[in-house]
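DATA SHEET
Item: assembly model
Revision: 1
Owner: S.N.
Input lines:
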Amino acid sequence: MSSARDRLEAEQADLLCALQRGEGGPAGLPPGDLKRTGNVLRSKRRRTLASCVPVTVTALGPDFPHQFELFAQQSAPLEDGKGPMDARAFLHFLQQRGRLPREAQGEARQLGLRTSRWLRWLP
Amino acid sequence: MMDQHERQGQLGALGVGWRPQLALEIERRQDIGFVEIVAESFPNGHVPQAIMNLRERGLPVIPHGVGLSLCGAQPPSAERLALLAKLARHCESPWITEHLAFVRAGGMESGHLLPPQRTWEALDVVVENIERAQAALPVPLALENPAALFAWPSDQLSLVEYLTEVLRRTGAGLLLDISNLFADACNYGVDALQVLDRLPLERVAYAHLAGGVACDGFYSDTHAHPVPEGALDLLRELLARRPDCPVLLERDENFGDLASWHAELDVVLTAQASAHRLAAESSGVA
């Protein structure tokens, strides 16, 4: 890559890291702008994910925003259009934490997750 | 080869973003003149029969990419360009459209369109990316202005300077997103009317219009809320300058309220009819 491309990559990567961390970013960028951008991106991610697994979201009720935030903190965003993959990862996250509602099992199976009360005994 | 004016004439006045949830409504509504499909929604290059039915009815179908990251450091991916090209050939599209934005860097995805650095150095990279894309695509490319979620401290060019320079250097068309321009006016004080006065509006392939919402003093172009009156006013200003500009309504969520979607389409048609009438009156044509 040219040095101009290298500089562009470094600056943009720095921004994406800062958005994931919630701090830092390009010199001179107001922290409020970074936080707001992160909120907008997370909000879009949450809405897209929710539209892929509406039954799960309904079943989680008021716990959905919290569970989503925990999930978003430990998993990087996917590219636009990969909502079902993100939703599958979220259901897997819930499943691993023992938080997948029973009502969500249909959606989980549709997204390719194995659901079974005996799952924990499988290697 | 068709020139830009002829390409623009291929589009009907009113367009919609095709979504599966709107398929039946789009098929039923006979005044829709073209549709846009999100390219990444059809990763194998094949589109549903519902879209081919629209093609058979004579509606242009435009592949609209969201993942090319033309303002990123990496050259556009051959695989993504091939998908856009395949869709355009399959649908006999007059245009392919994408964004003046980046969506990935350092091996990470943003999940959303982020604004480019408007510096002269970054512009050189972007122009090279666009030229590479144009060389790989079978039809002309039109580029959309994104809504800025933030302003890069390093910016050297204004929005209109940046857009004008990109168009001048690449020869690409412009997909003028009126709602994104409205968002920039609300959030960053961009003089939207000055932008309309200074842009080469003859290069606009078509315009986008979508709804949004203000929250904590920041307006977001969500494609999920009603189109605000301010954005409609800006659309009317565009049409006053270019009465023949095709306009496409985008909606990505909130499909339960189809009455409002139809109503917004009717508002666009009314605005276009009014602009045509005023243009005819001012030119002295009866």
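QC remark: The first helix of chain A runs from residue 3 to 21.
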